[in-house]
Amino acid sequence: MPEMFYTTEAIASDPELVESIALITDGRFSGATRGPAIGHVSPEAYEGGPIALVENGDLIKVDIIARELNIIGVMGEEKSSKEIDEILQERKSRWIKPKTKFTKGALGIYTKLAVSPMKGAYME
Q1: Who wins on pLDDT, 60 or 23?
Q2: Which helix (H) or strand (E) holds 72?
Q3: Rounded to whole angstroms, how far apart are CA atoms 122 and 113?
Q4: I want to staple 53 with a disulfide (CB 3.0 to 4.6 A). Which of 10, 43, 91, 100 is the partner?
Q5: How many C-beta neighbours within 10 Å does residue 79 have?
Q6: What would the mean pLDDT of 4-16 be, rounded to a whole number?
Q7: Which pLDDT score is estimated for 123?
Q8: Is this structure's pTM higher than 0.70?
Q9: Count of alpha carbons within 13 Å of 35, Cβ hemisphere only?
């Protein structure tokens, strides 16, 4: 998928960007991808996980080793974990699961059966 390669290449080739930006997408990556990129987030976001609650201006900490993505600030300002918990509870209370566009065929099967990568990225 060349569009993913170009995006990650643009980030990875800029010394300032590579230190401050991570690409988070539901896209796939080729073997040529390098740099800070997290893919295949659709099942987790669709189920209302942390990625679904991200808003413009949020500060996000990505800990690849611990396999964690955490919102640590809002509107560019760091917040305490208690404040973040309250903000996320409020966002979750108004979050509405999107309706699927796909009910038939391969994408319909994927939508119904795909399990989050955090659980092993398999089909139930």
Answers
A1: 60
A2: strand 68-74
A3: 8
A4: 91
A5: 17
A6: 78
A7: 83
A8: no
A9: 25
- The 8-class DSSP code of residue 115 comes to -
Residue 58 contacts residue 82 (beta carbons within 8 Å): no
Q: What is the pLDDT of residue 105?
A: 93
Question: Is the separation of the CB atoms in 5 and 30 below 8 Å?
Answer: yes
Confidence category of residue 7, pLDDT binned at 50, 70, 90 = confident
User: Is 54 in a helix, a strand, or coil?
Assistant: coil
Q: Which of 13, 30, 81, 116 is catalytic?
A: 30
Distance CA 52, CA 93 (A): 12
**Element counts in the chain: helices (H) and strands (E):** 5, 5
Per the CB < 8 A criterion, the answer to whether 43 and 98 are in contact is no
Q: Does 30 qualify as catalytic in the annotation?
A: yes
